[in-house]
Amino acid sequence: MPDIKHFDPDNALERAERLFWQHGAAKASIQAVTVATGLNRSSLYATFGGKRELYLAALRRYVHHRARPAQRWLTEDGRGLPAIREFFSALITARCSGEHAGWGCMLVNAHTDADHTDPEIRTLLDEHHRQLRDAMHGALQIAREQGQLAPGVSVEAAAEGLVLLAYGVNVRSRNGADADSLLSTVTATLGLLGAQHAAERD
Fold this sequence. Notes:
Layout: H1 9-23, H2 30-37, H3 41-48, H4 51-77, H5 81-96, H6 106-111, H7 119-145, H8 155-174, H9 179-193, H10 195-201
Helix pairs in contact: 1-2, 1-4, 4-7, 5-8, 5-9, 7-8, 8-9
């Protein structure tokens, strides 16, 4: 007879995602994982293959349900700099208020976790970085076409810089930075890219 699972694997994975997101893989013991998921060790290993594989699956779930939709929205918005401002405003709101306040971004947290050199985890993190950079690049390219960017702004360099700014927002919010200070930093950074700032400077 086939093995019949008496639990919902996706529900268990969601609980594991929350655990790893809030505390990181290194600090989440296998006992903490079994408590969070409600699975005993044998069920955990039989379903996911161990803590490493569960962590990878949780990271992929986070990408699919949280990171990818935000990137897709930014890619499809079509407003240029206003879309980037709204992206950061929503990011700061999510990081500083609500259920997940102070958790940061699971993917950014993973960059500093002990397992970040694992080849599969490294590939996932690098792919997320590329996708976010490409989304920023697309929005900046629209901004250039609509005359929103200051002359001389490199779209490629600015896109990379905005990704690093997003990382900084995630790290600082996890360490207790307030929403107003983060938003002020984002506003000042985007102001440096804008055509209005260049006109005022001239």
